[in-house]
Design goal:
The structure holds 2 protein chains of 2 kinds.
Chain A (H helix, E strand, L loop, with lengths): L5 H6 L3 E5 L2 E7 L13 H19 L4 E11 L8 E11 L3 E10 L2 E13 L7
Antiparallel strand pairs in A: 1-2, 2-4, 3-6, 4-5, 5-6
Chain B lengths: L7 E2 L5 H6 L3 E5 L2 E7 L14 H18 L6 E10 L8 E11 L3 E10 L2 E12 L4
Antiparallel strand pairs in B: 1-2, 2-3, 3-5, 4-7, 5-6, 6-7
Classes of the chains: A alpha+beta, B alpha+beta.
């Protein structure tokens, strides 16, 4: 599955697959994704992390509307230009109204970012306009 | 592009910020206010609200201005960044950022910021920055 939103299409391509209930992400770092030092910009790292998390949460939410309440990101290592990024997002806990999830991103095999998030779930009928 | 009234375009350096920008800036009695307008390319999966990745990119960029410019242009990198999403801006909304130092040490900077649309809060963020070259 590719690019589930206009923003992901704009900054992508980003590819998602499923593995044992987790969401896997694949992405290649190009020139437009870099910061002034020539490494992957933190904003693009967080875009990849949140996109994998949102894809995973939508997958487990049984049609409920989901949205992130909070996302916490740690920038563990750099993302060199041209590197292949692999991500894995996993559910930590799911209740009726919230989902806890985490994600790790690796660039050319080295840990680049870890993030945790809390999403809220709302049944489609009750969701605000 | 002239941008919203009262703002001037920011001279962005990072290629990714140029790619998802433009960002604008104005002074509000000594407080820097940075803004961007939600465009069709910024929207999330519902096609109505902004993607959280764009909001977090804006958080990183705007708190980075405080961490870099307001610390004598000393190079620094983001160690961690936390965001809480209070509401999701929609297409055409002007999102404003106001960031400030919470604490500055020689090697680590603590920066927080609040984000609003028409004066209504939409996101809060905190961040931790490593000052490069400092021990």
């Amino acid at each position: 599955m590719r690019d589930t939103s206009a923003f992901e299409q704009y900054v992508g391509p980003i590819t998602y697959t499923e593995d044992a209930g987790d969401t896997m992400l694949q992405f290649t770092i190009k020139d437009q994704h870099l910061n002034g030092d020539g490494f992957l910009h933190g904003g693009m790292m967080m875009t990849l992390a949140s996109s994998a998390l949102s894809t995973l949460v939508r997958h487990v939410s049984d049609g409920a509307v989901s949205a992130p309440l909070s996302i916490n990101c740690d920038f563990v290592g750099p993302g060199p230009a041209g590197a292949a990024v692999i991500g894995r997002a996993s559910i930590t806990r799911r209740t009726r109204t919230v989902v806890f999830a985490s994600v790790e991103l690796h660039a050319d095999g080295k840990l680049m970012m870890s993030a945790t998030a809390v999403y809220r779930l709302e049944s489609a009928e009750r969701s605000p306009a | 592009m002239s941008g919203p009234a009262g703002f001037k375009p920011q001279n962005l350096i990072d290629p990714f910020e140029k790619f998802v920008g433009p960002f604008y800036e104005r002074d509000e009695e000594g407080q820097r206010v940075i803004a961007f307008e939600v465009g069709p390319q910024h929207l999330g999966p519902d096609g109505v609200h902004v993607h959280e990745g764009q909001m977090m990119t804006f958080a990183d960029a705007t708190m980075g201005c405080t961490a870099y410019w307001d610390n004598d242009y000393t190079p620094c990198v983001t160690l961690s960044l936390q965001t809480s999403f209070l509401a999701f801006p929609k297409l055409g909304d002007l999102v404003e950022a106001r960031a400030r130092f919470v604490r500055k040490t020689r090697s680590v900077l603590f920066v927080e910021a609040s984000y609003s649309v028409n004066g209504e809060p939409v996101m809060t963020a905190t961040s931790l920055w490593k000052v490069l070259g400092a021990r």
